[in-house]
């Protein structure tokens, strides 16, 4: 703001030309010069509160006077105002002690000029602006957290706060300023850019805004540098043997810590045998050929994913899929030995005859004779078999994983078919025919030589004496003019030098029989014969057969098959070894070892049997000893002894089944299977064979419930057996017994008049106990539940005695066994009745007192009587309460009159008489005006009625324990406050004359002051001692006191033990 010059200074300036004279005013001196600016002020930017100087120098003669102007207005300095923060320096410069600057007021900021003046003129400097530097606190854009992966670029943006001059941007990392001299770091336009970030770049970053005011730091922002997963250990390709354990390593690092998982490129990971370890490695146990493939470890975190793979190759030792079997052929026939193998890599198969050096390989040029050949599948074929071809042939399979060998015996015989017994193609069937009809019993046979046929009836040979019976050429027995005596069992016998065959059928002759043509089916309705059975597998005791059905099923579908077998060593006849066979394959078991068998098959439909199939090739079952097949038994025993079987903890599936699992630490080629042995403790071992050496588990069924079993595993090869595994114990769950106790019997015990019975029993069958019997439950059930007698007996006891039965009553006795799972089935009821005439007259001894009481209490009549009695008692009590309350009301009315007349009169007498305490007594005596001591109602020491009595005239009674009253006393003090209601105030004064109705002798009368009408307080002290007041006075006191209680409608205990009672219209407080 421009200030005006003082008046004296303006007057001096006006008079200055006059003082100098006309000459001075009119002409300048030669040496004087007008002002000239020799140093112009420069623009300034100054921080708020900081000092600043605007320079300005001028020359002239006389020395010019310099003034400063801001925005066209003169600047006031300390010369005009000593308090000003602007100072004009001698040189003419303008000095600011501090720059003053605010949001609303900006006195120092502007455009300045300095003006130099003398009498010759003035000079004005160039404009100089003075600006106040500012720097706000809030960043327009603060840096934010950034998350990048290592190797990726990172950018952190920052827009500084508003300021003048415009602030510059720099960055700090963890409080250390960042230099952009590093090639990877660039700071441009407030952005911090880093290329190819490293893990070391992670940290807290601050954007710094700087100008001449100072620095401003932004909120810190975090740069997080994550690392993609990288592998420290990668899975590698591996080649292992079957049943081995393989580990694929996978050790990764990254930030954040990556998660790892495994996958198999060709399918799923092996279930139950694969496990991921704590170090993320994959462990596969008991590997097999199906486990081959590529296994990939996948490591993944929020930044990225990495994968590493390793392949698994499993070398499986050669195994025989189809073993060659011993064969018997005749000369000139062709024989084929199967030898199908498998393994990884596939093994090479070759054949060799025992004792010969010639090796037969697949795709090998035929031998000189051209009779031996080996197919690529491994089967060897010998054509035009000669007797010299007899012997053992060995099939061997070899690979890098191992080798295996199998032998088969070839027997060449001259003629085999001559040894086959006759075959009955179609025999007699069961028939029911009418009397006088004709019966045809078929018996069509084949054989070489041609067999002879004869018939038996009921075991007796049929002779030709009966003209009604004749044997037809095809072997059929014809019976004409049938009689009932012809009924019986007819047997057709076909006999030749090779043996005999029988077929039986029953003929029933009845009057209501059906004609023959209705019984025998047409041949075209019967099924056609199946193909010759082929042998697929042979063991010591079984032969597996397959065949094909005949395309002609006849008149109905084939329902089943029948298999017949013949062995010379087992008899010279065909035997049915299997029937009701539903499929076109079957394994015939129960055969003898090292025995030659022939087989044929018949088809069955609803019309009958087909003709037999062609006879199979002879087959010999295996010998008991494996040495017959050329296996060294010492090697077998040695390898079996090295096999270690680890039995796992058995798993209970149901109460009768458990699953047994095992592992094999070392596999041997001489393992045919495993023998699972189990037993109850201290009993014989039971055996269940697992015939596949690749199996590792089995299920034991039909176990007894609630029993503890011992289980172990043993490998075997034929009759050779390996080491047993450890024995493990497993208990099946218990269930309630499924059968009742056995042999339950009930008899009367004691004398003839006894009411006790003895019950005995035996445990349920061992297989149906279903656990350990804990106890037995015995029920003796009468006609009503109150006569039931139940008892629980320990499980080791087999009998018990029940007492207290009622004579003449029929009881049903039942017994049940109980396990920890519950109570089992009850036994059948046993009925018993104790005769009344044999029982004692008084049966109270037989029934306990508690039972008798319980029986009485449970009777409905007793319960009803108790209820009626309670009702009568309640009614009597109610009547008593009513009478008492009525009596109280009457007494209250009576005593109320006494009290209302007596209490005002108690104060009507002159209270100036003295009071004292009688010697040796605790009863206060009042002295009347005549000086005669009389008994009077005791008054309180200080009451509203006695305010005017001096304290010394009526001293307080001595304390209760004071020596002045040694006599035993029994006192009671009561206080009653009477407050009349407004409507009773007049009645109170009207009732006072009624006092004359009750003449009480020696009773002084007192008048109540009107000032005390609103409240009366009377203290009654009744002390009963040896020297008591007169009897009539005592009664009066007691009646007065009782009236206070009787008049109260709601007696209650007040403060400090006072008894309060509300009386209408008066209120008593006692």
From TrEMBL:
Q: Which family does it belong to?
A: Belongs to the immunoglobulin superfamily. ROBO family.
PROSITE patterns registered for this protein in UniProt: FN3, IG_LIKE
Keyword list (alphabetical) reads: Chemotaxis, Developmental protein, Differentiation, Disulfide bond, Glycoprotein, Immunoglobulin domain, Membrane, Neurogenesis, Phosphoprotein, Receptor, Repeat, Signal, Transmembrane, Transmembrane helix
Put simply, this protein is called: Roundabout guidance receptor 3
Q: Does the keyword Repeat apply?
A: yes
Q: What does the UniProt entry say about where the protein is found?
A: Membrane
User: Which species expresses this protein natively?
Assistant: Pseudonaja textilis
Any one GO CC term of this protein is: membrane
Which spans of this chain does the record mark as coiled coil? none
Region annotation (Disordered) ranges: 611-632, 953-991
Positions of transmembrane segments: 861-883
Please give the PANTHER family that the UniProt record associates with this protein: CTX-RELATED TYPE I TRANSMEMBRANE PROTEIN, ROUNDABOUT HOMOLOG 3
Output compositional bias ranges, type Polar residues. Answer: 962-980
Lineage of origin: Eukaryota, Metazoa, Chordata, Craniata, Vertebrata
* Annotated membrane topology: Single-pass type I membrane protein
Q: Which residues form the Fibronectin type-III domain?
A: 529-624, 643-735, 740-837
> Which domain of life, per UniProt?
Eukaryota
Classify the main location: membrane
Specify the signal sequence span.
1-25
Question: Does this entry carry the keyword Transmembrane?
Answer: yes
Q: In this protein, which residues make up the domain named Ig-like?
A: 35-131, 137-224, 229-313, 318-411, 421-504
Which GO BP terms apply?
A: cell differentiation; central nervous system development; chemotaxis; regulation of anatomical structure morphogenesis; regulation of multicellular organismal process
Which SUPFAM superfamilies does the record cross-reference, listed alphabetically? Fibronectin type III (SSF49265), Immunoglobulin (SSF48726)
**Ranges of Basic and acidic residues compositional bias?**
982-991
